[in-house]
Amino acid sequence: MRDWRERIQAYLGAGQLVCRIIVAEAKGSCPREAGADMYVSQAEICGTIGGGALEFEAMRVARQMLSELANTKARSSRQFRSFPLGPNLGQCCGGHVTLLFEGFTPDCLAALTAIPNVPDRGFIHQAGSPECAQLSSEPVSKLFFDAKNQCLSMPPISPNTAFYLYGAGHVGRAVMGAVKGLALDRVWVDTDKTRFPVHADPAITLAPAADMTIIAGHAPPGAIHIVMSYSHALDEALVYTILSKGNFAKLGLIGSRTKYQRFHSSLKKQGIEEAMLAQLICPIGLPDIRSKSPAHIGVSIAAQIATWLEAS
């Protein structure tokens, strides 16, 4: 997940004012959880706090804040506002949300850039504070909103999970499109650069390799691997490499139960222990989605990956 300071700095570096909106507290039925955020400039928005009337009103408040900042000498502004999601906003959720609005001007750029990266330190967001951002003095392990003192403590952003997809065929392309937006650092592996789409998402790391097992063998610990190359022999070599190395989060293989049984038998003969073989997920995807069209398979696999990320 991109660090919020990087997003703010991108706006400020382009000479734009920007407001970050954070869900500080969510009680009852609410469209997004505490910690969700979005970014509002005078020209665009990025992210979402749940859409609907709440988001529309939040955008109005944010742009009003930016207009006020543009007409003052203040570098930044910070305030909390409460929103009942019932009659006032016409939303049927029925919950109650407290939002934090943080407005930044380009004069904040140097201060934000100078804040060091401390792995276990989060940030303190205090209403009325003159600071553009305040690094916590002690480790912050979870989000905490102090309504009395109008202060939000937020833990550091967790890094994305490394995601390796082996195969750039029709299904591979559908999967890569479907997982966009999940907290993944996407690496796409195939045997030749011509197998990738001409206009691939620039956020994806393309890794053409004559021997894809070399890439698999150098993947970082805790990665998610999805294997779907054009060759069953190549699929097996990749699965063997990943299982032999170990230290991965999930390993999914496209195919049928018959393919799994054949791979299981062959890999066992090659010395892969039963405990490791049990970690191979095949068929990959949600069982309730039975269509074999690339679009359906892509959505099915992406949904399963989303459940893994939430459980981790």
Summarize this structure as a short list of keywords or feature phrases.
9 helices, alpha/beta, Rossmann fold, 15 strands, elongated, 26% strand, six-stranded parallel beta sheet, 312 residues, 2 domains
Can you put this structure into words, describing what you see?
The strands form three sheets. The chain has a six-stranded parallel beta sheet. The protein has a five-stranded antiparallel beta sheet with strand order 3-2-1-5-4, sandwiched between helices. With 312 residues, the protein is α/β, with parallel strands linked by helices. The chain is 32% helix and 26% strand. The model has no long low-confidence stretch (mean pLDDT 92). The two termini are 15 Å apart. The chain has helices at 4-13, 52-70, 109-114, 170-178, 212-217, 232-245, 257-269, 274-277, 294-311, and strands spanning 18-27, 37-40, 45-47, 76-84, 96-104, 121-126, 134-139, 144-146, 151-154, 161-166, 184-190, 205-208, 224-227, 250-253, 280-281. The longest helix is centred in the first third of the chain and has 19 residues, at 52-70. The chain has nine helices and 15 strands. The chain has two domains: 4-114, no CATH class; 161-311, 3-Layer(aba) Sandwich (Rossmann fold).
